[in-house]
Amino acid sequence: MANQYPGPPPEQPPGQPGQNPYATPSAGGPADAGYGYPQGGRPGDPGYGYPQAGSQPPPGFPPPTAPPPPPPGAGFQAGPPTGGMALSLGDIAVSGDTIMTPAGPMPLKGAVWTATDMSRTEEKIPAHAVVLAIVFFLFCLLGLLFLLMKERVTTGFVQVTVNSGGRHHSTMVPVQSREQVMYVLNQVNYARSLSV
């Protein structure tokens, strides 16, 4: 373990192969840019993928332009939102007079909302009740009363569907309790009341 620090051995002159790449350059100026500087390789040169000032588009491609506005009367045109978001069900949001979905905006007036409860509720004896029944059965027969303990577990989804303006969108809202199922169904009823 004669030389435990990186860099050239003391007898090697600077600038030769094997020199410490982290040492200050001997010329006194900034070091040449290396890894991390594409194209020109110097700090300040534009990097790869950045447009140059006054650059022309490649031949065969038209210059970029803004898309033309849709013709009037071509489907539902969402206006500016008149307020904050009224409600959100999965990826469906109601804001102002517009229903926003991944399929695009839909008019709120005249929308048809459908909710389908696809959840299931299971009732079972929890594991700790079985253990307590066995332990207390040995002491007295009252331990069997622990087997009367029940646990309700709800799993599944509520499917929410909206039809409006010639469009259709459906989403699945996950639920873990009967209270969440009722909350989603109440939200759908509120959306129905806004659609009238």
UniProtKB/TrEMBL annotation:
Question: Is Transmembrane among the key words of this record?
Answer: yes
Keywords from UniProt, A to Z, are: Membrane, Transmembrane, Transmembrane helix
UniProt feature, compositional bias: Low complexity = 17-36, 74-84
Keyword Transmembrane listed: yes
Compositionally biased intervals (Gly residues): 37-47
- Residue spans crossing the bilayer: 127-148
- Positions of the UniProt region annotated as Disordered: 1-86
User: What domain of life is recorded for the organism?
Assistant: Bacteria
Q: Where is the composition biased (Pro residues)?
A: 1-16, 56-73
Question: What name does this protein carry?
Answer: Uncharacterized protein
